[in-house]
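User: For my dataset I need records formatted as: sequence, then structure tokens, nothing else. Please produce one.
Assistant:
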Amino acid sequence: MISPDILRGATLLVLAFASNAFAAGTSPFKPISAANGQSEKPENYLGASIGKSSADSFCTSLQNCEDTDKSWKLFAGVRMNENIVLEGGYVNFGELTGKDAGNEVSQTATAFTLTGVAGFTMNEQIELFGKAGAARWSQEQVNAGTKTDSSGTDILVGAGANYDLGDNMGIRAEWERFKDVGSSVNKADIDLLSVGLTFSSL
């Protein structure tokens, strides 16, 4: 099991490193070059996405319940080679709400993520990818004014596609699943569908 402090620190390190490399337009990692000597893919990138999260089990025993909400995330990637990227990010899953015996129940969650992203190029503009790694999540649940906090580190998997817009910009659409988020008696998988923009240093 990855130490929570190590995961959080590694995620922040990737975000900071990619941000600095993006600003400088350089990276110490050397991606595989194309025949013309130019990098086929960006060495590093920053991105932001918006989407919708869902946790179906949240509404199991609640009334007037909403188990989906708007979400957003920030991420940054550093290319290790032509097909593999090390990516760190931060996700805000939004707020789920419902009622239990007339009492208001709400749940919020966030996560730091660290994943390996493997890409497969379809053509000059489209790249498909899969990802796997770990998420250091924090959750807060309020029931009738009583607040319960929980946190943990669990598996994250996902898949999606990138579309190159040119001028160092792209569109990303993806699905991610965050496993076993919540306390030991209230664990649930959170699914996140999102779309966003990426900005590369090339």
